[in-house]
């Protein structure tokens, strides 16, 4: 076997990085001077206008609207009362809206246009949870880069992404928007996405400002129910929830969005602890904080304030700079300042932050620079973006099971049956939050399979059963098909005698996303029944899952030989899945979130605490369920390949690590199979004793390594004391001396371990 030179990864130091590069720094002296000059000219009302954001589908083609909300927004834009609009779409519409502000208002301050560009603008990439499964930061960055290029060409300045909420409860519908359960992976992905959106320098014409959201702890909603209460300790907040946000700030993220939830009895929007002390204080964040949609006003139903005026006061004092659609700042802030209830200094600081981002985007040089219809047309049609979507989708796919080497499939097979509610679906693969992705525009699995196979292969398709009935779409509740089995016989006929059955099961695009929490995270509707009917006539079934959250599918996992987790994979879904099914791509994704056996195990994470009763004992008195194992169905970090890998025992450069020192953890990875493949080598540690107890394992590094058949490579991680630091009982970020375990392997479960002491 060949041995290649080893290469060393220096681990990302999540909490102590030195801050954004000069290019991404938001403060520069020249703009600050111009901001001073502007502030000196602005009336109080004009200042407050900069803090006001409306959602608008302004019809700007005709004459000024004569009545209603449209007229109000129109007049306020011209009156300098609107700093930003969201949901104005396209180069032409943004140009015309900008004209209203620049030509109509006294100080001609350009507006910021924002949109939820979550996983692509026109070209749709896999849902972010899927992208995180690639464990490939170059791929993640590339996806955001393409999204920014398209959005910036279409008049957008700003995306409300990345979502950085750590999510350990798959009932929560928004898990699809984030990077899953782990703070280290979340920080890496968050920083990569910020780099992707903001490019090398924010203000270049193919970049848009990013927004780290939802600050904070939105993903910890009780029971996984969206918008629900959060009550977590300062330790969980600091050690689990905040690291991705800190990483985004260090990567130079221009804006942060606060969150709907309360945390420990205080709505995040009204939390000075989160926004002033930590974000703007400890982390010295220089950009601005936008509220979540209506979250200032929602402090009233939260029971935190009595009315919108008090909400405005609580929000500005806590550090919420821009009011998204609560319509609280414009009517109330001026009065609060004049009565002395709110200091004008707070307003000035908020305005300065908003203007900083506008300067950084160079909107004062040319307010229309992003709104170029010719560029929009050309960029949105760029075929390289589709190619990128296919590559990112391939990299996101996780092989969960492959008994007897059923996969990859033979392109020259005589007959392949493609079955299931999602088999020919051209819409669900786009997932939720598809920005300007056109409905029904994805390559379906059926199309992908047909395009891949030989001319001699017959591809039979049968849906079997629809997943949903009736109306579907972003704002509507879904209803599932639980009774129409009329398509079953055709599906069974297609499966009978086929060389292999490819069965597309999973979730509708709108089963995940905002407001889409579920108490049951199995396969909805008739899907399992259909699968059983097919298995009766043909056991060679490959289940392709298309979904936006981990699914609890123990029966499916038992009954079929092969499972491919494809997520909602975007515009090129079908082609990318076919690349994997037929072996043109060897899958290399790993789960960014544990797949539970049942919803009753949630919330769950590999990075759990030990408890005082961790072990299995003969009596019942240990921390477990009596009707289920504790372990997930598929653990965090898990994913197979068409080849196999073996790991040597990890070798440490020394038994001890001194403060200021470095410990090298080396492992030899060997491709023991007959195909080239990539493996995500994962490094975990356990701090055995802490002033605040530490998880039984914490991811501290990973490297994706490509090896040819039979090839070996030494993979080395360099651990520093700062990598072991956490927020201690004393409220300090530091590593506590003592004994550690270190684990290396191909998932959070399958590891080899060693030990060392931190002096
Ligand atoms: C969501 C945000 C989103 C905003 C604007 C809110 O309902 O929580 O994530 O950015 O709407 O669309």
Descriptive overview:
With 759 residues, the chain is an alpha/beta fold. The chain contains 20 helices and 30 strands. The strands form eight sheets. A six-stranded mixed sheet has the order 12-19-18-17-13-14, with helices on both faces. Strands 1, 20, 21, 23 and 26 form a five-stranded mixed sheet that branches. The chain is globular. It starts with a strand and ends with a strand. Residues 1-17 have low confidence and may be disordered. Residues 86, 116, 160, 213, 292-293, 514 line the site of beta-D-glucopyranose (BGC).
Features:
single chain; 759 residues; alpha/beta; five-stranded mixed beta sheet; 30 strands; globular; binds beta-D-glucopyranose
- Average pLDDT rating: 95
Content of β-strand? 15-25%
The outline comes out as globular
Largest sheet: 6 strands, mixed
- Give the helix proportion (percent range): 25-40%
Q: Treating each run of at least 4 consecutive H or I residues as one helix, how many helices? A: 20
Low-confidence stretches: 1-17
Structural class: alpha/beta
Bound molecules: beta-D-glucopyranose
Q: Order of strands side by side in the largest beta sheet?
A: 12-19-18-17-13-14
Rg, please?
A: 26 Å
Number of strands: 30
Instruction: Report the span from N to C terminus.
Output: 38 Å
């Amino acid at each position: 076997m060949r041995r290649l030179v080893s290469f060393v990864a220096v681990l990302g130091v999540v909490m102590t990085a030195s801050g954004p590069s000069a290019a991404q720094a938001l403060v520069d002296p020249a703009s600050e001077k111009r901001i001073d000059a502007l502030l000196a000219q602005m009336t109080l009302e004009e200042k407050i206008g900069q803090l006001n954001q409306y959602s608008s589908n302004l019809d700007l083609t005709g004459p000024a609207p004569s009545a209603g909300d449209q007229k109000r927004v129109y007049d306020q834009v011209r009156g300098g009362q609107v700093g930003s609009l969201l949901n104005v779409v396209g180069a032409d519409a943004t140009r015309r809206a900008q004209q209203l502000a620049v030509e109509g208002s006294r100080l001609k301050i350009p507006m910021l246009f924002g949109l939820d560009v979550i996983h692509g603008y026109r070209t749709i990439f896999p849902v972010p949870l899927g992208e995180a499964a690639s464990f490939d930061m170059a791929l993640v960055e590339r996806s955001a880069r393409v999204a920014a290029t398209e959005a910036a060409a279409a008049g957008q300045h700003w995306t409300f992404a990345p979502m950085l909420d750590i999510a350990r409860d798959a009932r929560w519908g928004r898990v699809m928007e984030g990077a899953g359960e782990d703070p280290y992976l979340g920080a890496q992905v968050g920083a990569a996405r910020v780099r992707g959106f903001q490019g090398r320098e924010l203000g270049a014409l193919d970049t848009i400002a990013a927004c780290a959201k939802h600050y904070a702890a939105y993903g910890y909603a009780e029971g996984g129910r969206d918008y629900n209460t959060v009550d977590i300790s300062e330790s969980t907040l600091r050690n689990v929830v905040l690291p991705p946000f800190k990483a985004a700030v260090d990567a130079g993220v221009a804006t942060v969005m606060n969150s709907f939830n309360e945390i420990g009895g205080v709505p995040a929007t009204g939390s000075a602890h989160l926004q002033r002390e930590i974000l703007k204080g400890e982390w010295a964040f220089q950009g601005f904080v936008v509220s979540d949609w209506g979250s200032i006003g929602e402090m009233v139903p939260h029971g935190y304030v009595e009315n919108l005026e008090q909400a405005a006061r609580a929000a500005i004092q806590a550090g919420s700079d821009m009011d998204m659609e609560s319509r609280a700042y414009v009517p109330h802030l001026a009065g609060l300042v004049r009565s002395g209830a709110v200091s004008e200094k707070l307003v000035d600081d908020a305005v300065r932050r908003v203007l900083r981002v506008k300067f950084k985007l160079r909107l004062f040089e040319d307010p229309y620079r992003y709104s170029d219809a010719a560029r929009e047309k050309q960029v949105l049609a760029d075929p390289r973006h589709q190619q990128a979507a296919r590559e990112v989708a391939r990299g996101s796919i996780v092989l969960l099971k492959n008994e007897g080497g059923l996969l990859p499939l033979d392109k020259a097979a005589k007959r392949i049956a493609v079955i299931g509610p999602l088999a020919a679906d051209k819409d669900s693969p786009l997932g939720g939050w598809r920005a300007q992705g056109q409905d029904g525009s994805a390559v379906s699995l059926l199309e992908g399979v047909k395009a891949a196979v030989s001319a001699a292969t017959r591809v039979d398709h049968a849906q079997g059963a629809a997943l949903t009935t009736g109306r579907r779409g972003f704002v509507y509740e879904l209803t599932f098909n639980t009774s129409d089995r009329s398509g079953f016989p055709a599906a069974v006929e297609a499966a009978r005698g086929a060389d292999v059955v490819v069965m597309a099961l999973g979730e509708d695009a709108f089963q995940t996303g905002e407001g889409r929490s579920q108490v049951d995270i199995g396969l909805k509707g008739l899907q399992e029944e259909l699968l059983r009917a097919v298995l009766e006539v043909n056991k060679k079934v490959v289940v392709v899952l298309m979904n936006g959250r981990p699914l609890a599918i123990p029966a499916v996992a038992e009954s079929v030989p092969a499972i491919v987790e494809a997520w909602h994979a975007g515009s090129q879904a079908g082609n990318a899945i076919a690349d994997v099914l037929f072996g043109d791509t060897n899958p290399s994704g790993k789960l960014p979130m544990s797949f539970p056996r049942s919803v009753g195990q949630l919330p769950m994470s590999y990075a759990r605490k030990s408890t005082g009763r961790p072990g299995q004992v003969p009596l019942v008195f240990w921390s477990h369920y009596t009707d289920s194992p504790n372990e997930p169905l598929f653990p965090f970090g898990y994913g197979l390949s068409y080849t196999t890998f073996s790991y040597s025992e990890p070798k440490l450069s020394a038994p001890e690590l001194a403060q200021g020192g470095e410990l090298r953890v080396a492992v030899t990875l060997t491709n023991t199979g007959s195909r080239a493949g990539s493996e995500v080598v994962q490094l975990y540690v356990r701090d055995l004793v802490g002033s605040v107890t530490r998880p039984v394992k914490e991811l501290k590094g990973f490297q994706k390594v490509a090896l040819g058949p039979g090839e070996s490579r030494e993979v080395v991680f360099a651990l520093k004391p700062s990598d072991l630091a956490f927020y201690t009982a004393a409220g300090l970020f530091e590593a506590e001396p003592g004994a550690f375990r270190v684990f290396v392997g191909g998932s959070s479960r399958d590891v080899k371990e060693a030990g060392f002491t931190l002096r």
